[in-house]
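During the second year of the project, the team shifted from modelling isolated chains to modelling whole assemblies. The rationale, set out in the original proposal, was that interfaces cannot be judged from single-chain predictions alone. As a representative example for this report, we include one of the complexes processed in the last quarter. Its constituent sequences, exactly as entered into the pipeline, are reproduced here:
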Amino acid sequence: MKRANIVALVAVAGIVLALFFLGTGGAQRIQSMALGIISPFLRSGSGLEKKVTAIRQGLKSLAELEREAEQLRVRNKELEAVNTTLRDLESENNRLRRALQYREREIFRLIPAQIIARDASTWWNTVKIDRGSDDGIASEMPVLTETGLVGKVTTVSASSAIVVLISDENCKVAARVEGTREQGIVSGQRDSGAGMPQVGMWVRSKLAKLEPGQKVYSSGVGGVYPSGLLIGTIRDFKVRELDAYATLNPAVELTTLEDVFVVTGKK
Amino acid sequence: MTAFLPALIFVCFLSVVAGHFIPPLPIMEGARVLLMPVVFFFGALALPFWGMLVLATFCGLLWDAMTLQVITPMIGETAMMKTVEIIPGWSIILYAVLGSVMNGFQPLYLRGRWEIHTLMSGIFTALIVLAEFLLISVRRAAFYEDAAFLFNASIGWRILGAGIVALILAPFVYWALSVLAGLVGYDAAEVLRREEES
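Output from the structure prediction step:
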């Protein structure tokens, strides 16, 4: 065997061994570095993709844009009014909860983020967002939209982060079913096809009686996800030998998701 | 050689970036278009053995970094200590092993034959996806009490589909990379002859 080949083999073996003994923190640092290098390219690609989509959808006329702006102005005013009412109700609710010695409801600080890329691999369901540690994002922060839970942040670089979606088998969320005392764990399914991502809930009690259409919320157990976030609705429910299993329709359309919010802390 | 290896490394990097914008294929149950393995297998053919190892290290490390999953295994509702699902480095071994087999078919490539190599690109790409699937199945069975070994038509299609797509893409990728080799003045036959003599 030639000298150059032997040197290369020894060097590769050394690199592999060093990687095997890195540990979780070291591996995450490597991922963060790689993410830092690749994210400017992903941002450019995402921008280009959006421009192409915009061109494909056709340019809007000035009159259309004016009409759309007017509709948005009206909608904004409506939402402001609803928001003010809800703030009043919230403070009243908290006052009453205090009077009853209940814990006050938490209000979360949200950072908006855009999805710049989706996972290129076959078996994992993750997305990359355009916010990172410079924006106050850290790992384990929950990610949501106005309609429900999306997932949580796993790895962060300075200007981007990786979010594991609830449709991934590795994303486990402690959950409860509305109107019942049933609790369980929600996670994605490995054999999800190309269509709607499959999300299921492992229910502890085989005596549970759940119906299609019932809503599933995060229970807050475990501390990562706040309680009360909508995860999805039950599509199908099966009692098994030792437990029960419900298949869910996710509340968020995970395949076309573009904008999300990262929960960075409490207000 | 001096310019071709860095050029191939850059093309591998770009192919990973491009992969993020190519959606899964619905007709193949969500199989992915994996460009980087096809580029790597061309490199394994055109480069000397040590060059293939350098490329395998880059591709394996980049892929592991992009797909690394840091997870918190749960026993019931109790979260255990954070861990990595698949340790980075395993893809380097996989790429190096498959690349070595491809490298062994170099004489045929130097005689101007591509058919067997494009077929092998498809088979090896499917093998990479299968190896990933087996690894996560073994790891998840150890992590989660409710995890089981699953294999159904959807999973089969995603493994096979990645290979079929690679097989279709390989001739075009090989042709484009041959043009690139010409542009940077890389002559595989000449380089390998000099390697033999040294």
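Residues 60-105 of chain A form one domain. Residues 62-99 of chain A form the longest helix (38 residues).
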